[in-house]
Structures are given as C-alpha cells and as structure tokens.
Amino acid sequence: MDTTLTARLASIKVLTQFDTSNYLDNRLLDELDTRERAQANEYIQGILRRRSFLDFMIAEYSSVPLEELEAMFKNILRLGLYGLLFMDGTPDHAAINEPVEIAKRQISSRSGDMVNAILRRAQREREANQLPKPTMADRTQLIATTFSHPEWMVERYVKRMGEREAFQLFQANNKRPDFYLRVNNLRTQTDNFRLRLEKSGIAFEESDWLPGYFKVDSVAEVRAKGWFEKGLCQVQDIAAGFAPAVLDPQPNELVYDLCAAPGTKTIVLSGMMQNEGTILSVDIAQDRIGKIAENAEHYGAENVKIQRADIIEERFKLADAVLLDAPCSGTGVLSKRADLRWKRTPEELSAIIEKQAELLDAAANMVKKGGRLVYATCSIEPEENMEQVQKFLQEYDNFELQPLDDYLPEDVLSEDLLSYQTLPHVHGCDGHFGVLLKRVK
After folding, report:
1. Are 335 and 46 in contact (CB under 8 A)?
2. Predicted local confidence at residue 2, as pLDDT
3. How many whole angstroms separate alpha carbon 258 and alpha carbon 260?
4. Is 2 within a domain?
5. pTM over 0.90
6. Could you write out the DSSP letters of every residue in 27-94?
7. pLDDT tens digit sequence for 286-309
8. What is the tens place of the pLDDT at every residue in 198-241?
9. The domain containing residue 222 runs over which residues?
10. Same domain for 274 and 341?
11. Domain check: are 217 and 295 in the same one?
12. CATH number at residue 114
C-alpha cells in the first residue's frame, strides 16, 4: 500500500480522528512541507466550515445512510465534494481522482468505485446547475444545513439577531479568513517591516485601528520568507490586539498575563513595556507552559517570568495591571476554528460561564489600588461578556469600568464607550470582547 502522505490524505486522517475523538489534532501536518501543510489546513477548516451541507450532499447521493458510513469514507467524500463545489482553483480531475485513489488504498477497491460514482454525479449535476438543495420543513434544520452550523447555535443567533443578521454572521463564519501579522518591535520596526512586505510583493493592508498590524491573504508566503523564524512578526488577529492596547502596560510596571499560553499577548505586552519591568505569564496547563518560554525567547521578550499555577487556588502579590484573556466558547473565531462549532454544546457554555466568573474573581484580587484589570474573550455571547462583567461589578464595588475611546476606534466600542465588541460580519475580523476595570479603593 502506498502510504505517501499528501495534503489530502493528511486532512482526511485529521478529520477522521476529529469525528471519533472530538479533538482536532493537527500534529500530523508537521510531516508535510510548507505548501502542503497550508493546503491541508485549507481542506480541514474548509470542510469543517461546510460540513453539514457536505453531509446533506452525501446523503442525497449515497445508497447507504449517512450514519452508517465509515468515518474515513465519509471524509473522503467530504474532501472530494468540497474540492468540486467550493475550491474554484482545483481542477475537477484532481478533486475526483485523488480521493478515489485514497479510498482504494486506505479502504478498498469497491470504496474507490463508490467515491468515483458519487463525485462524478456531483460534477455532472453541478455543470447542469441541478445540484440538490436542502428543503427541510423544519426552519432551524434548513438553516443549520444550509449554513453548516449546529441547530442550537442557529436557534440562539436567529432569536438574538433575527434571520437576516444571523445569516450574515453564518456567511462570515464560512468565509476563508484573512490573517493579520503583528510586527514584533522587539526585533524590528514597523516601518522596516512594511518595506519588507512591499519589496517581497506580498499583498497587504495596514490597519488603521492599531499600529503594526498588517492584513494578508495567506501566511504561507510570509512563512516561506523565514520572517517567523527570525521573530519579526506573529500571526495575531487585529481584535486580539485590543486587550493589550486597553491594558496599556508601562515600562517598570508589574504586569500579570493570566491564562497566557501560548504567550502571544505576553510578547505584545513585553514590546509595549520596551522589555522593562516584569511580566508574570501564568497558565495552569503543564504542557503549554513550555510554549510561553519558547515564544518569549524566540521573540526577544526578556522581562517575562513564567509560572504554572491555578490562579483560583494560589495567591499572588498585587500587580499594577492584570490581563485576563479568559477561556471562552470561541464563538468569535468560528471561521479560523471551524471545529469549535461542532464541539461546543449549550451545557458546555454554561460551564464556561461559571469558570469565567471564578477566574475574574481571582484576577480582581491580584490588582493593587489604582491598578488596572482587563477582562477579554474571543466570544460573541452576552453571557460571557458584558453580563459577566455586570455580575462582577455587583459584587466588587471597588472596581469601575473605564472609557476606551483613548485606546480604540469608536466603531468597535459600545455606545457608552465602556466595552469593545467586534463581530465577524460587521467588522471583518474575529469576534472579541473586552473591558478595562480600574480598582478605585
């Protein structure tokens, strides 16, 4: 059996493992070269963004019920249909032939024949503009299938936003995302990095929301230039930069970055502090602490100390500024992390909200009088965001919300200027929320 690992085969294996374990493990992609790894990531996230619709298509074409199909066989079909229907640059013969060969090698010759028959039929019907369309009587099921979001999310967003805006959100979540590069000013200057981009011919758009952020279509060209290896830049969505900007750490302060792994925001904070003062970067996960240390060294963040700790259980001396980028549902990043839409449940959301309250309580007790606390998430759920903050303020009368218009543009701020919230379909970036709290007594 030919076991050569290609982008398509690797993506099928990763997706099959996700179906059986509910955990997206991309480590297999490390065996691919840069171009193939980028292609595999495109397949994996693209298929997860369209999974319900692809499964509807499979159910229409397969004589075997969807739930009875072997996981690998199902993912081979998803891959082939995704290539035929959603990847304009992929020739039909490539979208069909390699999945057929993978099915023959990995499963059986008969499976390969079945894949070929289904994909050829989809090709014919696409060309004749006769592809089947979802027509369920149940409105929620119809929307969920069409836009490939779980039904509980569809019900939630349609109720909150109305169908029209919910559809816009779902469409934004299903788009291939843009990526932002943040210049690491500990290694280079923004002007110099801009010149590098211009000379390289890499298309970019510089953000006017925060300095040093450049939107690019793909990070593959940047990776090929070796700029990540040199520590010149990081991949970080513009909205993820809002929390450090609002915290506004100063040189010589004591700053805590909580739930910090893998340390991306720690590096941002270090640059803002010009490597002066101290950042204590804390995380509970033993297997992720090493990543913070690795990133701090790689990007030249010399004022970073690292501690593995459960912040709910352990006590810390009081700091000038504390950043709590809280574990959350991740519903603001469903374009880049399409797997999350299939992992999350309403019950899990409730547990996340409870944990956030405990973490926010712990973080508040680390802030000295006159100090600052930023609470942030990559969620668009009110219960995780402003409702969480309001519950906190009912218990802590020694903290007050601070206006954010000195730090961020008003188009990402609430009407009272006391919080920021980005939405993928409105702002063209990930969905992030945050507030700045000052300890006043």
Report:
1. no
2. 54
3. 5
4. no
5. yes
6. GGGGGS-HHHHHHHHHHHHHHHHTHHHHHHHHHHH-SS-GGGS-HHHHHHHHHHHHHHHH-TTS-HHH
7. 989 999 999 999 999 999 999 999
8. 999 999 999 999 999 999 988 888 988 999 999 999 999 999 99
9. 179-235
10. yes
11. no
12. 1.10.940.10
